[in-house]
Write a structure and sequence with these properties.
Largest sheet: 5 strands, mixed
Radius of gyration: 17 Å
Helix content: 25-40%
CATH topology of the largest domain: Arc Repressor Mutant, subunit A
Structural class: alpha/beta
Number of strands: 7
CATH superfamily of the largest domain: Winged helix-like DNA-binding domain superfamily/Winged helix DNA-binding domain
């Protein structure tokens, strides 16, 4: 069973998803690839309505609510310009390659950026390869299902340009400005 919850940020509505064990999704409403890892059968914790039926999994619901409270607290701190000193449990769904890219994104410090090429070079080095495709890295970054916490907004083009962001360039600019980058 998956659960969803909503958060109203200063730059728009956000939908959160959990499997009752960890955070599995965080999307700006209407963004590219919005909720693409969310199952069609989920429990909306904001209303007592689900897409199919009310949940009978009270333990999973309680755990999901705890994860959503942690995520709300993380987002509250973040949008105040503070660096949260914790991370909710995360479990993004994706291929091994995508998860490898997302792990690198998690290592980019608040207020700093990294290029697609730098990420590709790290993966190539780790795998003992001469090179890795920056475009493949770009595809993994674009499909990040846990925006902001897995900071795909901190990835820029090799010339410093603010290339695409699934949530929209305006949101990427806001997030980088918030972090004073």
């Amino acid at each position: 069973m998956q659960y969803i919850n909503h958060y109203e940020s200063p730059i728009g509505g956000i939908t959160l998803a959990s499997d009752g064990q960890s955070l599995t999704g965080l999307w700006f409403e209407g963004q590219k690839y919005y909720a693409d890892t969310l199952e069609t059968d989920y429990y909306d914790t904001d209303n007592e309505i689900t897409s199919v039926n009310k949940t009978s999994d009270t333990e999973g619901l309680e755990k999901a609510l705890t994860i959503f409270k942690q995520t709300h607290r993380w987002l509250d701190l973040y949008f105040k310009g503070k660096v949260p000193d914790f991370t909710p449990p995360l479990s993004p769904a994706g291929s091994d390659f995508r998860r490898e890219v997302w792990d690198i994104l998690l290592s980019i410090p608040f207020g700093q950026t990294m290029t697609y090429g730098e990420i590709a070079a790290r993966i190539a080095h780790k795998r003992g390869l001469k090179s890795m495709s920056s475009q493949a890295v770009g595809g993994a970054v674009a499909h990040n299902p846990i925006s902001i916490i897995i900071p795909c907004h901190r990835v820029i083009g090799s010339n410093g340009s603010l290339t695409g962001y699934a949530g929209g360039i305006d949101k990427k600019i806001h997030l980088l400005t918030l972090e004073k980058e």
